[in-house]
Write a structure and sequence with these properties.
homotetramer, alpha+beta, Butyryl-Coa Dehydrogenase, subunit A, domain 1, Butyryl-CoA Dehydrogenase, subunit A, domain 2, Butyryl-CoA Dehydrogenase, subunit A, domain 3, 3 domains, four-stranded mixed beta sheet, four-stranded antiparallel beta sheet, globular
C-alpha cells in the first residue's frame, strides 16, 4: 500500500458519507454528470492526484488513484469521466509542450475542465490503425480536420478533446503511418455532435461527432507529428488498471447488494442466502474479485516503481472485468424477477459488466496479446 | 409437426413480410403495444388458435401456437402479451361457468380484449402460497378485495384481469388454504396502478397495482372457491412451452444477427466470424438452441396427445432460457462496444435473456423440481 | 420410436439382468474384451441389426442399434468394439464387391469376427488427407503397404482391418488424391503392433501398428481405387449417432450413480443431495442429457427415413459428449475424494467423457462445420 | 519475496537440472516414491525449511516452502509426500512435549523419516467430527486403538503416523468432544493396511488401514487429551497454501506443455496454437493462474508476518485448484485424442486437477466458509 493510502481512504470515506448511490443512480438514468460527486473529487483533491505541483497537482501515484476508484466504486459512486481526465494527462505530461501543459493541465486538477477522448471510429474498432479521420497540414501550418468519432464521452460538455487523427490520408498499403494527436477545442466551427443512446444508465453522455473542414491551429498538435499512437499507447497500462479498479469496485457493490438481499429474501421462509445455488456463486465471485484486486494492486505498485507491467495490466483487465461480470450475473439471479426493475438498481451493473468485457479493449484481443507475449503462440487474427 | 403447421408457417411468413423488427423495437423503447402486430395476429387468426369454435376460436393445438411463437420470435417480432392471452383461456375453458366463457372468451380471439394476469406479489415471489391479497366474501355474496400485485403486464390497457387472491386471510400455520381465482374488472373503484420501470425494452407496460376495498361481484369468482391454485397449476406446462418458444425464437434472432455482423465486421480485415472465439460460441449456441427446440416440439406434441409433460416442459424451460442467454451473450460479445448502443438492437435481448432465466419461473426452482421428481433427491429449499 | 423398439428393449433388459457392470469394469481395468457381453450381443441378435438377411443379418435400422447402445450404456455395459463393427459394414455394403460382402459380412453378425479400423495417424489427426501410409500398386496387381497407424482398437484381436491408405504417394501439392480403402488381413507378414497405454479403463486394447512392405492382394481393395475417403465419409453420420448413444447412456449412468450416492452420503447428517450445489448440477446434467437424447432420436429417425442429417448428427455429437462430460464432472464432485478411488468406478467415466469431447472427432472441428454450413461463417482453420 | 527467495530458486534450479519429469512420471505410474527427488530435497536443505535449528532445521518461513513447491511443481517434479511432512511439524512444534520434538522432528529434516497423516474415515469425509476410530485410555495409562483410516498416504512406508482418534467413544449427542492426536508407531501389533487403487498416477502409495486392539503407549499422545482437532486446525491455513503452490505449479506445467504442443501440432498446416479456441483458453488459464499465484504469495507473506489469513488461504485454495483444472482441461483438449495416451503425460494432471477441486478440502465447503465469514450469509449445510 502506498504511503498516501490512509489519506485516500479518509477522503473517500468522507465522500461516501456525503453522496449516496441513489443520487448517482438518478444521474445515470438521465445520463447526467453527477456534479455533486465531481465537485467533491475536485475539492477533496482526488482530481489533482498524479499531477505535479507545478501544474496544480498534488503529486501522488497511480496506486493512489486506483485506490480511490476502487473505494468509491465499491459504493457504486460512479464517475467514469474521471478515467479520461486521468488518462489525458499522461500523454500531455510526457509529450506536450511546456506551454500546452501550463494551459491545459491545471483546470483538470480543479475540475473546471476535463478532456474528452476522441479515438474510436465505427469501422476501426479495436484496430486504431484503421481510423480515417484526417487532419491534413495546410500551407499556413494549420490542420484541416475531417471525419468523425463515436462513443465520445462528454464531448459536448468538455472544452477540449484529445483527438487522434491521421495527418496523412489512409493508405491501405501502410495503415500505420501518419497518426497524430491533437488538443481539439470542441467549440470550433465545423464540429457537430449527436447524442448516442447508450443503454448503460451511465452518469454521462456519449456522442457521435462529425468534423467538417474544421481548422485546427498549428499548436493544437501534441508531440511529434505522426507519433500519435505511440504517445497514446504509453498510457494504456495505466488505463487498464484504472478501469480494473472500477470493475472490482462495482463487483463488490453487486456482491454486497446481493448478499444483503439474500439475507432477508425468503419466499420459502429460509433466506435464499442459505441456498448453495445462491451462496456459492456469491462466494466464488467474491473470491475471484479479491484475487483480481490482489493482482491489481501488485501491478499498480510495480508500475509506480517504474517497472514494465504490460503483461500484468492486461491480465488484470481480463480478471477484473470477468469478476465484475460474475458478480453482476449472480446478483441478477439473486434478485430474480426484480433484477430488471430499474428501481432495484442492479440492472445497470449487469449491463456495464458485459460492456466491460469488451471495452475499453476487448478481452479477446487481450487474450491474444497474452498468448503471444507470454506463451509465445502465433498471432490468431 | 401438426397438420396445421404449413398453414401456420404461411400466416407467420405473411406477417413477417409486413411488419419489420424496427417497428417492434421502437414500440419496445416506448413500452407500447405493437398494435399493428397485434392486429395481424388477430386478423390472421393466430389469436383464435386453441379456442373451440363455439367461443369464437378456430380449434388448433398448443403445437400450432408454439410454432407461431417460435417463427415470429425468430424475427424478433415480440408480442409477449400473447402469452397471458393464451394462458388465461386454459383455466377459463376448464373451470369457468358457461356464462363466463361466453362473455369473456370470444374477445380474446378477436383481439378486442385481452386478460392481464394478477398473481405475483413482492414478498411471495416464486412461492404463490405466500400471497397476501385478500378477497373476503361479504354477507351479500360479493368479495372485498384488498392488497396489490406487481409485474402486472398491461393491467391498465386490459379490460379484465385474471386475479389470484386469498378468500381466507393469510394464515402462517396453513398458507395453502383459501386461494381463489377471479375475473377482475380493471376499472372498478378502489383500483389504482403505477407503471413500473422495467429496463427490458418490452413492447408493453408493467404495473404495480393496489386494491383498496374493491367490491368484486359474486360472479367474478372462477371455479370453486379456494381452488384457485389448482386451476392455475393446470396450465403451467403450456406456459412453460409458450415461453420456451419465445426463447428459442429470440435466441435464433440473436445468432442470426451476430452471424451477419460477424461476416462483415473486419477491424483487422479478416471478418471476425473467422475467429474461433466468435465462431465457435455462435455455433454452440445454435446447436444448443436446436436441441432445446427439438425437445420443445417433442414435448408439445406429447402434450397435444394428452400425455403428461410435467418433466419435459420444465426441462424445456431451462434449456430454452439457457440457450437464449448463450446466444444473447455471444451476440453482445460479437458486437463488441456497439452492443450497448441501443440503436444496434442487441442489448434488449441480452437483458431479456437473463430475465428469462429467472422468469416466469426461476430455473433454480425448476432444477429442484427435476432433482426431486426425476432423480428422487430430497427437497433443497 | 421404431417398430422394433419394444423388442430391442427386451433384449437389452435381458442382457442387463445377466451381465453386471462390475464384470465390465473389471475387463476395463485389464483392457480385455468383455467376452460374455459380446457373446450376448451376438446370440441375442443385436450384432446382426442393420445387416440384410442375405448376409446373415436381421434387417433393422440405425434407430434400433442406437437404442440398444443407449440402453446398455445407461448401465455402463460398455462395448466400444461394437462401433467399428457396425461402422465397417456401411462401406462394405455399399461399395464392396459381392464376393467381399459374402465373405466378410456374415461373421460380423455372428460375432465370430469383427473389423478393426485403420485410419488415424499421428501427424494427420483430424485431417485424414494428411495420412502417409501408402499401398502402392505393384506390376502384378498387388499393393505394397508401408507406414503405420495409431489408436487401432483391437487390431491384434481382429482377423481383418478396414484400412485407409494412399495408393499414390503423399503429394503436398494435392493431398486429397489417391486415398483408397482396403480389407487388411491382420496376420500378413510385415505387420507388427505394439499395445498403447490408453488410460481410459477401456474393455479393449489399442495398438500402434507398423506395416513394412506388406503385400496386399489385389482383391483387398474395397470399391474404386482413390475413392477411399468418399466411401468412409458416407458412414460418418451414423458413427456420430452411435457414439452419441454411448455418451448419453454413460451420462445417465453417471447421473444415476451420483444421485444414489447423494441420497445416502451425509457427512453433516443431511444427505448431500439436498445441497443445491450438488442437486442442481445433477438436474442440469439430466436435463441436458435428455435434450441431447431427444435430438439424437429425432436425427436417427430422420436418417432412417433416408433424409440427410449432416447437420443434426454433428450437433448431436457435440451435445451428447458435452452432457456426458457435465454428468461425469458433477458425479466426480459428488463423490468427492472417493472419485479417484478406482474401486468406486466413477473415474473411468470422467476420463472417457473428456476424451469423447475430442474423439472420434474433435468438437471444435464440428463447431467449425456447423458455423460454416448452418451460419454461413468463413472457414476458421 | 522473502529474503531467502534467491537461495530457494537456486536450489530448485539445481534440482530441476538433475531430475527430469520422465523419472517422476515413471514413479507415478508405479506409485513409487521418487527416491532420487526426495533425497535431493533432503540434501539441498529444502526439507529442513521451517524447522528451528535446535531440531535440525534451517529456519525459513512458509513463503520459502511455498516458493519451492511452486517452482518444482511447475516442472511437474511432484513430491506430494512433502506436504504431510511439513504439515506434521506445525502441531508437533506447538503442542508436542520437548521430548517428542527432540525425538521425532530431526529425522523429518534429514528425510530419513516422514510422518503419514491419519485423519480421513469413509463415513466422515469433510466432517472430521464424525470420525469413529477410538483410542480409549486404559487403567495403565496406555490407549487401546480400534478402527481404521482411509487415503493414508505412504502409511506402510512411514515409521510414524500422526493419528486423529477419539479418546471418548462417538456420542451422537455431542460429536465434538474427545478427539485427540497421537504419534502412532506404524509397526505396532494389530495394525494392518491394504493399498488403495487410486487412479491418479501419484508417486506414492495410499492405504486403507485397520487398527485392531492396538496398544498405544501413554507418551503417544500429543498435546492435551481431547484437543486434537484444535491442534490440527491450527495448521490448516498453511496446508491450504502448500497445496495451492502445488496447484499453480502444475497448472503452469500443463499450460507450458500445451503451448509447446500447440506451436508444432498442425494437422491443417497452421499450428493449432493460432486457433483462438485453443489460444484463448490457454491465455485465460495462464491469466487466472497468475492471479491465484499473486494472491497466494500475498497470503503467504501475510502469514509469515503473523497475521491471520483464514479467509485468504481459503480463497487461494479455491483459486489455485480451479486454475489448475482450467489449465489441465484445455491441455487435454489441446492434445486431442492423444490426451488419454498415458505416454503423453497429460492425463495424470487432468485427473489430479479434478481431485484437487475436492481435496484435501472440498471447494464447496470452502465457499460456504467464505459465504459465512466474509458475506455474513447463513449456514447452508
Amino acid at each position: 500500500m502506498s504511503e498516501n493510502a490512509e489519506a485516500i481512504r479518509e477522503i473517500c470515506d468522507s465522500i461516501i458519507r456525503r453522496v449516496d448511490r441513489a443520487y448517482v443512480a438518478e444521474c445515470g438514468k438521465r445520463n447526467e454528470l453527477p456534479k455533486k460527486l465531481w465537485d467533491m473529487w475536485a475539492e477533496s483533491g482526488l482530481l489533482s492526484i498524479g499531477l505535479p505541483e507545478e501544474y496544480g497537482g498534488s503529486g501522488g501515484s497511480l496506486s493512489d488513484i486506483v485506490l480511490a476508484m476502487d473505494l468509491l466504486h465499491t459504493e457504486a459512486l460512479l464517475l467514469p469521466l474521471a478515467v479520461p481526465n486521468f488518462m489525458s494527462r499522461g500523454p500531455l505530461l510526457k509529450f506536450a509542450s511546456e506551454e500546452q501543459k501550463r494551459r491545459y493541465l491545471p483546470p483538470t486538477a480543479t475540475g473546471e475542465e476535463f478532456f474528452s477522448f476522441g479515438i474510436t471510429e465505427p469501422d476501426a474498432g479495436t484496430n486504431t490503425f484503421k481510423i480515417k479521420t484526417t487532419a491534413i497540414r495546410q500551407p499556413d501550418g494549420t490542420f484541416l480536420l475531417n471525419g468523425g468519432k463515436t462513443y465520445q464521452t462528454a464531448f459536448v460538455e468538455s472544452a477540449h478533446c484529445l483527438l487522434v487523427a491521421r495527418t496523412q490520408p489512409y493508405d491501405p498499403e501502410d495503415r500505420t503511418k501518419g497518426i497524430s494527436l491533437f488538443i481539439l477545442d470542441t467549440k470550433l466551427p465545423g464540429i457537430s455532435a449527436t447524442q448516442m443512446d447508450i443503454g448503460m444508465y451511465l452518469p454521462e453522455k456519449n456522442y457521435t461527432t462529425y468534423f467538417d473542414n474544421v481548422v485546427l491551429p498549428a499548436d493544437a498538435l501534441v508531440g511529434e507529428e505522426g507519433r500519435g499512437l505511440n504517445i497514446l499507447f504509453d498510457s494504456l497500462n495505466s488505463e487498464r488498471l484504472l478501469v480494473a479498479a472500477m470493475n472490482v469496485g462495482q463487483a463488490d457493490y453487486c456482491i454486497n447488494r446481493a448478499a444483503e438481499y439474500a439475507k432477508t429474501r425468503a419466499p420459502f421462509d429460509t433466506p435464499i442466502g442459505a441456498y448453495q445455488s445462491i451462496q456459492h456463486p456469491l462466494a466464488r465471485a467474491k473470491t475471484y474479485n479479491e484475487s483480481a484486486r490482489s493482482m491489481m494492486y501488485l501491478a499498480t505498485a510495480k508500475h509506480d516503481r517504474g517497472e514494465n507491467i504490460g503483461v500484468e495490466a492486461n491480465m488484470v483487465k481480463v480478471l477484473a472485468s470477468e469478476s465484475f461480470k460474475m458478480a453482476a450475473e449472480i446478483a441478477m439471479t439473486c434478485f430474480g424477477g426484480a433484477g430488471v426493475d430499474v428501481s432495484q438498481d442492479i440492472l445497470p451493473f449487469y449491463i456495464a459488466a458485459q460492456n466491460n468485457i469488451v471495452a475499453p479493449v476487448n478481452n479477446q484481443i487481450v487474450l491474444s496479446f497474452i498468448a503471444e507475449k507470454v506463451l509465445g503462440l502465433p498471432k490468431s487474427y
